[in-house]
Specification:
Number of domains: 4
Number of helices: 10
Helix content: 40-55%
Distance between the termini: 24 Å
Mean pLDDT: 92
Low-confidence stretches: none
Shape: elongated
């Protein structure tokens, strides 16, 4: 080995140490850089030189600067990140509804309770104009609360639309960045004979990680090292150096809601099924809107619509302070029908609520194929079909209480979205302004004949909705005939009579004497009127049922209005207003708690995955400090080798003066 060879070995060691110092310094400088992966220097022994008796080393060679990167660990972090983003986004949104509905001041509970409390007060003094006015004031307060809650939910819906648009813009930005980095990486590798441009690779992986915060992205590495990125059901977001775009577009079925479109190689924008968007903030927003926001708006609207229908219906069955039949207290908008953007220009459909108690919180779609109409409940896929509208169940009722009609002929392929209750809460209003028109009195009045000698008695009577079709214009007289057999005759005999004794009901044609056993309480129903007769009338005793003309001291209908607080008027006649609202608040609270728990758990999993990746690819300052000392000593030792080689060379020169 010559002195020149020794010097070369020392120089190679100096270069190796310098590479190590530079790389370690770069690691330390980027210890806080997001997406940075630790780098190490690769060394290999120089090819030996044969020296007669054996091979002598020729120093060290730097084989490359390697990026410490685990694709497996990076994929785990991305998967955990996209799941956490979805869960946390859902939680952040549903928490707002939970705070809104659970508020003791902004919620419905206090407004509902106040209305029924004021009704009870007014019923105790039906002739008092002041207490009647407080009822209308409480009704107005309740309507305002419905409007406020609906407005807050609508604002939240608008916010979701905006966030979807912002997230789509960010997705497109990351897709463009990844495609650009694909190109830059290929160019750098070509110009460096295949050496990896670590900084560009870090930037690309960081862009993929950021993309996964917004939407779950599936990455396939091409043979040239480029990333191809896919989302949803396989829509290509990045293919080599080319990127494709998502678009925030109005939904074809509901233009008030923003959805996602995909603009592929053809340039045509195609709607992406919302259910196919998995992971990330976008999936969180879409699932929150479909699973919680829209159903909550619908549930609130169903309460408003049923409340208006129940109060209006019951008030119409009473008599106001002026002795006139009651009218409506509330008004509410009819169901919303939206034509699909792809429909023919002329087709039209309208919807009305035939039975508010049968309403659900679902939306519906109506499709026409040229022959058949098919109504689908979107919440569970239940369908009704027929060749004409309105569609009906086998028992003659309308599907979920909805009556549909064609307003303009439809073309084959036309579709409509029907929102029975979505806008009801926002439109709920008090139309009654005159407190005297609050119908607190019963529609009919009863009396026993002044000449009666028996112990027979008749109660005050009540009416149902069928009474409105043919209200009494004059009294109906019931006359007892002691028989045998003992019977009751009705004059005038204008309607069939149903007599219920001990739970058994028997119907008698109009004009037919109705059996009555003295001492046996009997319920008599005719023309929408129900009265209860008891005791033992004497032969010829009479009882009258007359139209009520005085609402001053009568509060029977007011008590029935108050009873609506606990009446099973919703969910197919199985729940009251308070039951439904309590369940809504409970369900939202449960959903909020569930997503808080799952997002926290997923956050912990994300931390674990990130820590695992950091333990491999992250910068350890203690380790880098040790590397600095090691490379410093390596640099100093190789400098000493060069110094010794130089001294030896000088000695040789001095041997030949």
């Amino acid at each position: 080995m010559s002195i020149a060879g020794l010097t070369s070995i020392g120089v190679s060691g100096l270069d190796a140490a310098q590479f190590g110092l530079t790389t370690t310094g770069n690691n330390i400088a980027n210890s806080g850089t997001a997406g940075y992966n630790r780098e190490t220097v690769g060394y290999q022994e120089g090819v030996g030189s044969f020296a007669g008796v054996g091979y002598l080393g020729t120093g060290v060679q730097v084989s490359g600067v390697n990026r410490v990167y685990s694709q497996f660990l990076a994929a785990q972090v991305n998967q955990s990140q996209t799941q956490y983003s979805q869960l946390n986004t859902y939680y952040q949104q549903v928490q707002q509804i939970d705070n809104m509905l659970g508020s003791p001041t902004a919620g419905l509970s206090s407004s509902l309770s106040n209305l029924f409390a004021q009704l009870q007060t007014a019923s105790s003094a039906p002739g008092d104009a002041a207490t009647r006015q407080t009822v209308l004031g409480a009704a107005q307060s309740l309507a305002t609360t419905f409007q406020s809650l609906s407005g807050s939910l609508s604002q939240l819906s608008t916010s979701v639309n905006g966030q979807i648009g912002d997230d789509v813009t960010q997705v497109n930005s990351y897709a463009k960045q990844i495609a650009s980095l694909n190109q830059a990486i290929l160019t750098a590798q070509t110009s460096s004979n295949g050496a990896a441009p670590n900084a560009l690779l870090d930037q690309r992986d960081q862009a993929v990680a950021s993309l996964n915060q917004l939407v779950q992205a599936n990455v396939v590495k091409a043979s040239d090292g480029s990333y191809n990125v896919f989302i949803g059901t396989g829509q290509t977001l990045v293919m080599g150096q080319q990127n494709f775009s998502l678009k925030a577009v109005p939904s074809a079925s509901d233009p008030t809601q923003t959805t996602i479109g995909y603009q592929g190689p053809s340039g045509t924008t195609v709607a992406v099924p919302e259910g196919s968007i998995a992971g990330g903030a976008l999936a969180g927003l879409l699932s929150f809107r479909a699973q919680t926001l829209n159903p909550t708006q619908n549930a609130l609207g169903a309460m408003a619509l049923t409340l208006a229908d129940s109060f209006n219906g019951q008030n119409q069955l009473g008599i106001d302070l002026n002795g006139q039949p009651g009218g409506n207290i509330f008004s509410v908008a009819p169901p919303t029908v939206l034509a699909n953007a792809a429909n023919s220009a002329t087709g039209g459909v309208s919807a009305t609520v035939a039975n508010a108690a049968q309403l659900t919180t679902s939306d519906y779609t109506l499709a026409y194929d040229g022959t058949n109409y098919t109504l689908t409940r979107t919440s569970d896929g239940t369908t009704w079909s027929g060749t004409s509208l309105p569609l009906k169940n086998t028992n003659g009722t309308y599907p979920d209480g909805l009556q549909l009609s064609v307003t303009n002929p439809l073309a084959a392929g036309d579709k409509f979205t029907i929102l029975p209750t979505r806008d009801a809460a926002s439109s709920l209003a008090v139309t009654m302004t005159d407190p005297s028109k609050l119908a607190l009195a019963g529609a009919v009045a009863t009396a026993k004949g002044s000449a009666n000698t028996g112990s027979g008695a008749i109660d005050a009577g009540s009416v149902d909705a069928t009474y409105l079709a043919a209200p009494l214009s004059s009294p109906v007289t019931l006359t007892y005939n002691g028989g045998p057999p003992s019977t009751l005759s009705f004059s005038p005999a204008g309607a069939a009579v149903t007599a219920t004794v001990n739970g058994t009901a028997t119907t008698y044609a109009a004009g037919t004497p109705v059996p009555y056993t003295p001492g046996t309480p009997t319920q008599l129903s005719f023309g929408g009127i129900t009265v209860n007769l008891s005791g033992a009338p004497a032969n010829g005793d009479t009882f009258t049922v007359s139209p009520n003309t005085s609402g001053v001291s009568d509060s029977r209908n007011g008590q029935l209005l108050s009873a609506l607080q606990t009446a099973k008027t919703m969910a197919g006649g199985t729940a009251s207003f308070t039951d439904v609202y309590a369940k809504l608040v409970s369900d939202i609270g449960s959903t909020t708690s569930q997503y808080q728990t799952t997002s926290t758990a997923q956050s912990n999993l994300l931390k674990q995955a990130t820590n695992a990746q950091s333990s491999v690819s992250g910068v350890n300052m203690d380790e880098e400090a040790a590397n600095l000392l090691n490379y410093q000593q390596m640099y100093q030792a190789n400098s000493k080798v060069i110094q010794i080689a130089s001294t030896l060379f000088d000695t040789i020169l001095n041997l030949n003066p």
